[in-house]
Design brief:
Elements (H helix, E strand, L loop, with lengths): L2 H7 L2 E5 L3 E6 L7 E8 L2 E2 L2 E2 L6 E3 L4 E6 L3 E6 L4 E5 L4 H21 L5 E5 L6 H14 L5 E4 L12 E6 L16 E4 L9 H20 L2 H6 L1 E4 L7 H12 L4 E5 L2 H10 L5 E5 L10 H17 L9 E6 L4 E5 L22 E3 L9 E6 L13 E11 L4 E6 L9 E8 L5
Helix pairs in contact: 2-3, 4-6
Length: 426
């Protein structure tokens, strides 16, 4: 082992001056890295570190420990990259938070809606991280903001292939993110919005209306406002989605990370009362390869069923008769324009519900369990109770085996198939 490698495996101590940040990454699957605060004050993406507590990080972790006043940190285990950064955009992010707090105070006085902020930008610029920092700072001030995650590929709420919202009542856990208590989840079924923009628009409108209703009856959340995280698809239809989000969520502030072109386009296209603000991305944000993104998606689904290192979950596996279930897929094959029935638009087939018959193609697919109790018309627009995974399909016996977080019976017999798959290797 070289000297350099040797150094990385040792227990290391870092003394950080005010406004500095320790950045590290863990890549190796077999490695665990432990962080502890020896003295001073520090935070990870807006969550304060408890002095003396040991935080564990595994493969895929890309972490920044920032200090406003200076601190001493200890790192144990082998990191792949580790360095102290002197330049960070934390002061700018903190100023954004202060401006939002001002608006929340005003909203509280007037008993109206607090700021709705949407964070946009290309891939890997730190959109989720900025959203997390703003939410953490808000909740540390005693606010109860709503977090909306529209990134169906790398979102932080529920599993990939969904859009959803969460009432934030406490700061994110440093190693596990925000607590997923009673999230409001809509099934989209794809990791990328491009796959079905018509469906995506319906879901965002539905989510926005649902949140509006919830804020009507929750004064504290109403004044705290909403933080919306978006995906990195910002061209063509993706850009139109951003404009649509601005409208349906009644966005007041758009934070544009890293891309001046997008900033200028938005300034041109959104109404004047929407403030568009350009922010530098942090030099620490790490670009993720396609395979790292796929691995992160897989990990989120695994955690949904099996929990995390700290809090394991024990899912159930059971058979269901095909006749007991109604499994749908959203989107029918396209019909040539010339054959479209009167009044039907070319894109309408994308939001058509198709009832599936038993088939092996369902194997390993995620199925969303709908809350819908009324007719077929409402299935797409109704939020979901949770997810199961198909681990076996027995065509002869007309049985399907499901991996489920809950024991039998399912809360509803209406299921919707997702494009996303999960190989249960436990
Ligand atoms: N200051 C930092 N130092 C080190 N790592 C960071 C820092 N900020 C963010 N990261 C890491 O960089 C990665 C990408 O950040 P993030 O997920 O916020 O980007 P994004 O723009 O939301 O990505 P996406 O393209 O998926 O929408 C994450 O793993 C995050 O933990």
């Amino acid at each position: 082992m070289s000297n350099q490698e040797d150094q990385k495996t040792d227990i290391q101590e870092f003394k950080l001056e005010a406004d500095q940040e320790l950045r590290f990454e863990v890549e190796s699957k077999s490695e665990k890295v432990y962080l502890s605060l020896k003295s001073g004050l520090a935070e990870v993406f807006g969550t304060e570190i408890v002095k003396g507590k040991l935080y564990e990080f595994t493969a895929g972790a890309k972490i920044a420990v920032f200090t406003w006043h200076g601190c001493v940190l200890e790192i144990r285990g082998k990191t792949d990259v580790i360095y102290v950064a002197k330049e960070t955009p934390m002061v700018v992010y903190s100023n954004c938070h202060a401006a939002l707090e001002f608006m929340r105070n005003e909203a509280e006085k007037e008993n109206c809606k607090g700021p709705t902020v949407m964070v946009v930008g290309p891939c890997d610029v730190g959109k989720s991280t900025v959203s997390r920092i703003l939410l953490n700072y808000a909740v540390r001030e005693g606010r109860r903001p709503i977090y909306v995650d529209l990134d169906s590929g790398q979102g932080q709420i529920s599993i990939p292939g969904t859009v959803g919202a969460l009432l934030i009542e406490r700061p994110a856990s440093i190693d596990e993110g925000f607590a997923q208590e009673a999230p409001l989840i809509y099934h989209f079924g794809h990791k990328s919005h491009e796959k079905n923009t018509a469906l995506f628009s319906i879901l965002t409108t539905q989510l926005a209306n649902n949140i509006k209703d919830k804020l009507e009856v929750n004064k504290r959340a109403r004044a705290s406002g909403i933080v919306i995280n978006t995906c990195g698809w910002i061209k063509g239809e993706g850009y139109k989605q951003l404009l649509n989000n601005t409208k349906v969520f009644e966005v007041d502030i758009i934070l544009v990370l890293d891309q001046e072109r997008l900033y200028n386009e938005l300034v041109r296209d959104v109404p004047d009362f929407v403030k568009v603000i350009f922010l530098q991305k942090s030099g620490g944000v790490v670009e993720r390869s396609k395979s790292a993104r796929a691995e992160a998606r897989d990990q989120r689904i695994r955690e949904y069923f099996y929990g995390t290192l700290r809090s394991s979950l024990y899912p159930h596996s059971f058979d269901m008769k095909w006749s007991e279930l109604k499994i749908y897929k959203i989107g029918a094959p396209a019909i040539p324009d010339s054959c479209l029935p009167l009044g039907m638009k070319p894109k309408d087939h994308m939001t058509k519900l198709v009832l599936l018959s038993p088939n092996l193609g369902l194997l390993h697919h995620i199925l969303a369990v709908s809350f819908c109790e009324s007719g077929e018309d409402d299935i797409i627009k109704t939020h979901v109770a949770g997810f199961v995974c198909v681990t076996n399909v027995d065509i002869d016996r007309q049985l399907i085996t499901l991996l489920s977080p809950q024991p039998k019976p399912l809360p509803n017999n209406i299921l919707i198939m997702s494009d996303l798959q999960f190989m249960d290797s436990h």
